[in-house]
Amino acid sequence: DLDAARQELEEFIPHVKNISDSSIKKMAGRDLTRFKEFKKQGIAVKFGRFTQKENKQIQKNVEEFLALTGLDSAEKLLFTSRYPEDKDTIHRLKTEHHFCEKISEGIPRPWRLIYYRARKMFDPNNYKGRYTEEEKEQLKKYQALHGNDWKKISELMSRSNLSVAMKFSEIKSAINYGPWTKEETQKLMNAVKEVMRRKLEAENPGSFSSLEQSNTDLWIEREKLHQQLPWTEIETKVGSRYWRQCKQKWNSILTSKLTKGQQLYKGTSGLQAKINLIKRLYETKAEDASEVNWDELSHAIGDVPRAYVQTKFYRLKVSSVPLWKRKTFSEIMDYLYEKKLPELEEEL
């Protein structure tokens, strides 16, 4: 019963009303029993970025499934269409050995998200380094021929779907890499306001008139300012910058406006802010940065956006932790707490 399945899933997935009927059927079969088991263990269903611990579990699940079936590569398992001669055998092995259940074992997330994450982790086309000038020209040619059929283009170029889509976003027009002009900044702010107004109107039809009456730049509550935005759409509206530049500039604008020019990282207040940040991060006992609630931590160093706090933490670890790239998040935090914190407290 589709309605009953949707109602049961709603307990675990708040946005279930926006999910298609076909996806609900798949989730009822692949996820509902798993979700109920996790609930018994007191574990909530998760969304958002995967943690290092979850990535390791996915790797373990894939390796165990390969050992169980005798398949010789994760690429064959997760990108079966690339091996048409083995396709039937692989599908039979997946069915016989319950691929869906095995790949998602121990991870409290919808199966589909786990599968997509595994594909991203094990796709050899994701790790091919910088694009050559020849590849960039090929990408332009293929996009002219096939439009935004990134699956087709990725096959032609032996790069992942995401990689070719993002690279084309960067090279499709004359991108400006210099300082932002006033005109570009205004275009960006207008674009962000437009998509956020549209989003807010969809969520709450009565709110649009109140937005129109507002004469302030910060015409919406803080929480809304930090949500995910359709950056490729905003990129198109700005015209002269690609999406990642637009996102970084918007975070910079937010920081400037919401901190009202406070010099939080100057003098003794800067030292105290770093001390507070290290202590609060250490107290979370997070194993991975994606497990940290950055919004709550924003209060540790002042009334600032989460992007501001994340930037400050990045600068702190880069400047203070030797060989930080080789360390896990928890190892970085141990070093900051045990080595850097006493230095900062003494300096303060």
What does this structure look like?
The protein has 348 residues and is mainly α. It has four domains: 2-122, no CATH class; 133-172; 182-259, no CATH class; 267-347, no CATH class. Helix content is 64%, strand content 0%. It is built from 20 helices and no strands. The longest helix has 22 residues, at 182-203. The model is unreliable at 207-224 (pLDDT under 50). GO terms for molecular function: chromatin binding.
Instruction: Tell me the domain tally.
Output: 4
Order of helices and strands: HHHHHHHHHHHHHHHHHHHH
Strand content: under 5%
**Total number of beta strands:** 0
The end-to-end span amounts to 64 Å
Report Rg.
Answer: 24 Å
Shape: globular
Could you list the spans in which at least 5 consecutive residues all have pLDDT below 50?
A: 207-224
> Helix/strand-derived class?
mainly alpha
Mean pLDDT: 79
Major sheet description? none
Helices, by number, come to 20
Helix content: 55-70%
Describe the structure in brief.
It holds the Pfam family Myb_DNA-bind_6. This protein has 348 residues and is an all-alpha fold. Helix content is 64%, strand content 0%.
Q: How are the SSEs placed, and which strands pair?
A:
Layout: H1 2-10, H2 21-30, H3 32-40, H4 52-69, H5 74-78, H6 87-96, H7 99-103, H8 111-122, H9 133-146, H10 150-157, H11 161-171, H12 182-203, H13 208-213, H14 222-225, H15 231-238, H16 243-259, H17 267-283, H18 294-297, H19 306-320, H20 329-347
Task: List its traits.
mainly alpha; globular; TTF1-like
